[in-house]
Amino acid sequence: MNNYAYIALFAIVGIAFAIITLWLSWALRPTHRPKGAKAEPYECGEIPLGDAWKQFRVGYYIFALVFVIFDVEAIFIFPWAKELLHLKGMGLGVFAFVEMMVFIGVLLVGLLYAWRKGVLRWE
Q: Cα–Cα distance between 31 and 29 in angstroms, integer?
């Protein structure tokens, strides 16, 4: 078998597994619909008080996005650092280094912008 046949086989098995497990969970589930107290939203067994809709400051969302951006930066830097010596042997070391410095520079400009806008202040 060639390599594509293995990929196709694993794709078929994976899709079949997902479809079969979804069908089994649908076929074996209880058919009753909860009523009364069972249909109420709850948290930790407490009786809910008030509305479940709460508005949060957008600052929390932006703070989380800044964290994710720098987390993704770390994900890109580790494999780059591992391959830098290999790229140096191919004559691409300086190019790869400059490209990563441009990438880090763009992220630093974004960090400085967020800092000046006050996004990183936790209030």
A: 6
The Cα 70–Cα 108 span in angstroms is 10
State the sign of the Cα–Cα–Cα–Cα dihedral 47, 51, 52, 55: negative
The 10s digit of each residue's pLDDT in 13-37 is 999 999 999 999 989 988 777 777 6
Kindly list the domain boundaries of the chain, sorted by start residue: 3-117
H/E run at residue 110: helix 93-117
The torsion angles phi and psi of 50, rounded to 5 degrees, stand at 80, -170
Asked: is 3-117 a CATH 1.20.58 domain? The reply is yes
Mean pLDDT of the chain: 82
